[in-house]
Every structure is written in C-alpha cells, then in structure tokens.
Amino acid sequence: MKVTRGEDNIGTYNKTDRSYRKWCKTYGGHVFTQHPGFGLIDVYAAVIPDLPFDPHLHVFYEETVLRIRDGLPKMADIPAELGGSGRTLPE
Length: 91
Known about the structure:
It is built from no helices and six strands. With 91 residues, the protein is mainly beta.
C-alpha cells in the first residue's frame, strides 16, 4: 500500500504495539491500520469506492468495542496460517 496524497494529514493512534490505527486529521475517518508484528496493513474498504466487498471473517475481534452479529467467524487476532493464534471467539 502507498499513500499518494495527504500523508501529512494522517494521524496515528495505538493502544497496543500490535495495531497502529491511521485516521484523517480533518474528518476523523479511519483510513487504515498497520500491524507491524504481522507485516500487514488493513485498508478500510470504504476508502476504495470501486472495491467489491465480500467479507469472510473478522480479525483482531478481541480488541473490538463494537460487537457485530453477522454470523461470520470472529478471530481473536489473525488466522494461524498468517502467524496468529487462529483462535475464534463467540459471536
């Protein structure tokens, strides 16, 4: 992923070393999250207007403050195949 415009307007918040949430300083919207320990970046789907969105699971659900009841698997962190615990949580 590469930020092509407005990089100086992106703020960072992290409550743990596992996730660095990036947000727009002007509008307050979530843009992406870096997970340095896993070498992953989660891009907020709404910032890619033409992206067909078909979710299959929730990652880092253990850290969520908003519970979502949609029938999809809720992973505590990320799947074991990607270096996480692979542990799922109840909906």
